[in-house]
Amino acid sequence: MRYKELTGKELIDAHKGERLGILGHTDLEINPENGRIESIVIQDFSMLGIKKSDSHAKIRWKDIEVIGEDMIIVKPDHLKD
Pfam family example for this protein (predicted)? Predict the structure, then answer.
């Protein structure tokens, strides 16, 4: 899958049932040694695309459960049973 196929998909936290952001309004942390994506960094933006604060959330790539047609479902490890 190419990055351009991921952009525009909503990130959803499966445990909380809430929208985390849209991939494309995010940054990727890539391991320079192996070229793999380590995590997705979600910035805090308003509806108009203006950055609200310097806070951000980080989703580890391994916490992605499903990549669907319209959304990406995330289940963070620290919440799994």
Answer: PRC
Of 19, 4, 10, nearest to 67 (Cα)? 10
From 6, 11, 28, select the one nearest 64 (Cα to Cα).
11
CATH of the domain at 56: 2.30.30.240
Instruction: Say which residue the tokens 């040694």 belong to.
Output: 33
Indicate the pTM of the whole model.
0.70
Q: Are the beta carbons of 38 and 29 closer than 8 angstroms? A: yes
**Splitting the chain (81 residues) into consecutive groups of 10 residues, what average pLDDT does each group show?**
84 89 83 93 59 67 93 75 38
Asked if residue 56 is part of any domain, the answer here is: yes
Dihedral sign, Cα of residue 47, residue 52, residue 54, residue 57: negative
